[in-house]
Design goal:
With about 120 residues, the protein is an all-alpha fold. It has one domain: Orthogonal Bundle (Recoverin, domain 1), CATH 1.10.238.10. Helix content is about 75%, strand content about 0%. The chain contains five helices and no strands. It has helices at about 5-35, 45-55, 65-75, 85-95, 95-115. Helix 1 (about 5-35) packs across helix 5. Keywords: Calcium.
Length: about 120
Amino acid sequence: MTGVGKRADFEDLLPVMANKLGGEGLINELCNGFQLLMDKDRGVITTESLRKQSSFLGLQDLSDDELAGMVQEGDLDGDGALNQMEFCVLMFRLSPDLMRESRFWLEEALEEELKGDGV
């Protein structure tokens, strides 16, 4: 299976997880995923930390360049690694269905917040 196929499989699973866990549960799971993948000394996901976890993720056939490309795709600040916020943003970006659903969750959360304020 190619990296593209794996990415497509991943995209299909995030909305399912979101529906099952809810918004807060999904964010917690993403945070847990970040903790699993990060370099414990640096507190970020690096190409090296991805390589160390690649077999656990089913990505053992990816080259170093492909792993580096995964990090670069989400590296918003250009430091060569993914912090927790960059990782979560990347996970949402990789799932168009989840992006659409996240707008619904935001609207729902705002409505609940407004009800709590007595508005």
